[in-house]
Amino acid sequence: MNSNLIRRLAILGAFSIFGIIIIQGYWLRRAFILNDSEFHQSVTIALYEVAQKIAAFNQSELPKQNLVQRKSSNYYAVNVNNNIDANILEDYLIRSFEEKAINTDFEYAVYDCLSKELVYGSYCKMEHLDESKEKSGVLPKFEDLTYYFVVKFPSKTGFLLSNMWQNLLFSFITFLALSFLVYSMWVILKQKKLSELQKDFINNMTHEFKTPISSIKIASDYLLKDPILNQNERIKKYTEIISDQNSRLNNQVEKVLSLARLESDNFKLKKESFDIIPIIKDIIAAENIRIAPGHVGLAVDESAAIITGDKLHFTNIVYNILDNSVKYCKSIPQIAINIINNGEKMLLEIKDNGIGINKEELDKLFQKFYRVSTGNIHDVKGFGLGLFYVKNICKSHGWNVRVASEPNVGSTFTIEIPYQNG
């Protein structure tokens, strides 16, 4: 994948995650505010009812204004304009809070006009009324009120959050999902960096191989042409081995370099219109020299011979398929190349009598570094890059490549080349 594309996706992902966190935080805050407003309304109504009950008990009138005053987020003062019996206040408060579903702990105090101090009443646990708890802190008094009592809810925040458990659960799930997404992005970027380092290393290594390979080729060619050395059959044989192995090493290096170019961001095909028949005949001639004359045949529909594509890469993919057909054959290879015109597409078929491939392995055949397990016999060497290269070159051209195979019978590779691509 293009590095710039990954960078853009990472930036967009970061903005998306940041936006989701902001929106989620906004809705959580809004839900908390709504719950707090609902709590305040319920407490106000409950304290108003308590004040009415006290006024009825004392047979007095309540103030017309500012009866229930919210002094802080969890602290309320109730002005009743008359003496308050602390013995009945707690009962009134508990009953009223239970009716309004205010099931959170509270503490209260009554202002004593004689001592001019708040007389602490009790800490009431709504779930277990028989248990007591120490006073949570100093309850402030108010100079503008005369007969009043105060109520404080020390566990109000926890009570509101407990009523928001669904919101908190969804937020937690969202946070987990975002954490997984961030971790995935980090892993992808790390793997991308490692992949680039690996590619740079392979490219540098293979390029460094080119110089000694060229030097060995020059030296071996010189030795093969020397008439004096050729008179010694032993030296001639060793020289031919050096030349053959050097050619093999050069071919492997070229495969790696071709693959590196294919995976690079600036890879471009040099498309041109060309006749594939001469190219395939040259390939067949070279292969017949390598194995034995007449073992690679060609059947062609002349009307299907002209295509548009990259001539070099087309040649390479045919070579790669033929190379596999030769390597993965336990007997003398018999390879048939058929070129067919079916009207809309040109079909290039390469059929061999090799060891074949199990159905379970066909889907993995074009994967990078994959090699057929049954083909790992003594004389089969390679990196498992050939068919991966074939697949990607065909994909770059807009061609389709498929394979049909049967174990111990052979395989047929088919490349579909649409004429509209030409």
Structural account:
With about 425 residues, the chain is an alpha+beta fold. It has three domains: about 5-160; about 165-265; about 270-420, Heat Shock Protein 90. Helix content is about 50%, strand content about 20%. The protein has ten helices and twelve strands. A five-stranded antiparallel beta sheet has the order 1-2-5-3-4. A five-stranded mixed beta sheet has the order 7-9-10-12-11, with helices on one face. Helix 7 (about 275-290) packs parallel to helix 8 (about 310-325) and helix 8 runs antiparallel to helix 10 (about 385-395). The radius of gyration is 43 Å and the shape is rod-shaped. The model has no long low-confidence stretch (mean pLDDT about 80).
Strand content: 15-25%
Q: SSE order, as H and E? A: HEEHEEEHHHHEHEEHEEHHEE
The total beta strand count reads: 12
Proportion of helical residues = 40-55%
Q: In total, how many domains does the architecture comprise?
A: 3
Task: Report the principal-axis shape.
Answer: rod-shaped
Question: Rg, please?
Answer: 43 Å
Q: Main sheet, how many strands, which sense, barrel?
A: 5 strands, antiparallel
Which regions have little confidence, pLDDT < 50, spanning 5+ residues?
A: none
Q: If helices are DSSP runs of H or I spanning 4 or more residues, what is the number of helices?
A: 10
N-to-C CA distance: 27 Å
Structural class of the helix and strand makeup?
Answer: alpha+beta
> Mean pLDDT across all residues, rounded?
81
* Order of adjacent strands in the largest pleated sheet: 1-2-5-3-4
